[in-house]
Amino acid sequence: MSKLFNRLNLRFDRKEISGSLGDLGVFDTLGFGWRYPHLHLPSMQNLIEGFWRGTIPQIPLTVLNSVIAVCALSADLFPDRPLMTKRVAVSIGLMNLIACPFGGMPMCHGAGGLAAQYRFGARTGGSVVFLGLAKMILAISFGGSLLAIISLYPSSVLGIMLLFAGWQMVAICADMKTKSNVIPMALTAGVCLAIGTAAGFVIGFVFSLLLYKWIAPENLRRVNIKHKSKERSKENTKCPEQITK
């Protein structure tokens, strides 16, 4: 890589760039060549250990963030074409059953990833297909030598991207204005941060169930009726041009 810079007559202060990106010598280790995946079947001992140490602890996070939260977020971002929980869950299972035997890391969807992609302009499934193809081409072309390059990725840039993704998720909650929505949301988020995701889900779910079924069902029905009537009034006040659009 350094020879290529010299041929292109690119001159820069190596110390300054190294200070911001790290050791530029890792670019010399970048090697091009086709690298095909190989089949690695786990032993029975690996399956048992992975089930107890990986699968069981991961179930709450995967179900909540990768299935329920993704589907809920998609309904807010794309109300005309929301994702179905069954399809999302099946896709997670299929991609792990296919990729893991070839050395792939366990993968899942995520509400944060969906929010980030939407925030930076993704509106169709083609954007994810393009991203996946680009990653596959890079992996097959450069293999493990890319790990050294990835380690140079500035954490400050990653932090800014995560900030925008987080802000997108916060903006989704802007329509939760009633106490019946805000209190369960705040309680669930607080318990998730203080204790863990599984505890936050259980406590938030039980509290919401009690709230909607036994504590104040009549008040909640009135709130929902008022909210629906306001939405209908807004629809009726739209001009014909807006309706046709």
Q: Could you give a short account of the major beta sheet?
A: none
Number of strands: 0
Shape: globular
β content, as a range? under 5%
Contiguous helical run count: 12
Q: Report the radius of gyration as a whole number of Å.
A: 24 Å
The amount of helix comes to over 70%
Mean pLDDT over all positions: 75
Give the assembly state of these chains.
single chain
Distance between the termini: 53 Å
- Unreliable runs, pLDDT <50, ≥5 residues? 7-20, 238-245
Structural class based on helices, strands and sheet pairing: mainly alpha
Order of helical and strand elements:
HHHHHHHHHHHH
Description of the molecule:
With 245 residues, the protein is mostly helical. The chain has 12 helices and no strands. It has helices at 2-7, 14-21, 44-77, 85-99, 111-119, 125-142, 146-150, 155-172, 179-194, 197-215, 217-236, 240-244. Helix 3 (44-77) runs antiparallel to helix 4 (85-99), helix 3 (44-77) packs across helix 5 and helix 9 (179-194) runs antiparallel to helix 10. The longest helix has 34 residues, at 44-77. The protein starts with a helix and ends with a helix.
